[in-house]
Amino acid sequence: MTTHFFGDTAILLGRSLRHITRSMDTIITTAVMPIAFMLLFVYVFGGAINTGSESYVNYLLPGILLITIASGIAYTAFRLFQDMQGGIFERFQSMPIARSSVLWAHVLTSLVANLVSIVVVVLVALIMGFRSSAGIGAWLAVAGILILVTLALTWIAVIPGLTAKSVDGASAFSYPLIFLPFISSAFVPTGSMPGPVRAFAENQPATSIVNALRALLTEAPVGNDVWIGLAWCLGILAVAYFFAMNTYRRKIT
To answer: Which of the pair, 114 or 11, is modelled with greater confidence?
Structure first.
């Protein structure tokens, strides 16, 4: 059964990736908005924001990477919605394939597409002056966290992709996720925020994840942020996966 699942997932993943390569504009579009935010904040607002001795593009990049992922997962919901409306799922049900492989193919496609977008954003950040003294181990840890964030948010995207009634409804859920890093330590230190806003910012997942990424990229002590961030990611992933699979089972029965 395991071999059956992996084989089916690989075949369906190839199908989804071919769709991506035929519409590279989706990856480009995903990267455009985060890059625009990065340009705006670094060259327009960056001079007015005090982040200590650290360059603002170095401070900003971890939050921009989260926004990149949040933008990219909207396309997962969109592609799932298209498959639902196009009758592809019903066609797959008539075939002897592992049922969950259909969803996993979309999730892994999201992972590949988002990693490509992240690489594009990092390259632009390097042109803008981003520099990191992090070693290979720290970069691998950064990659691991970003992969975990992508998986967690992608499984959230699966739910509206399966249940939405319109294309706009399938992708609109991502707007709050894109907005969340703005109320965190991603753009400004939380100490400068008013009391209630600061309390929310310091206790929401984006702040812990951003702080952990920033510490890894600058070789600073990560403290508890990395464990809190990982706990948030794993908790969101487990809950989203549970509800996504339940929604999928209801749809195909």
So the answer is: 114
